Amino acid sequence: MVTVEFLGPITREPMQIEAKRLEEVAKRLKEEAVIREWLPKCAVAVNDTMVSDLNTPLKDGDKISILPPVCGG
Question: pTM score, two decimals?
Answer without folding.
Answer: 0.90
